[in-house]
Amino acid sequence: MRITSWMADHLDETPLSDGQSVITDEANPDCFILEAKVLDSLQLRRWILSQGEGLVVLEPVQLRDWVRESMQSVLSEYR
Length: 79
Hints:
four-stranded antiparallel sheet
């Protein structure tokens, strides 16, 4: 995931997994890249959607596609 600095601080205090790593995003120095091995669960997906602009799922592609489709569906309700 690409995460904001606020989210990086938050995940430093309450990690998603024991082996997670957070590094500066070379393409965008205001953001960070989070790598973590987690179970793809309904709880994870709800948490991702609840973070709004605080993160962008980069991989796995299936999860990224699901987030995009979910957000497009919600957005269509506001048109």
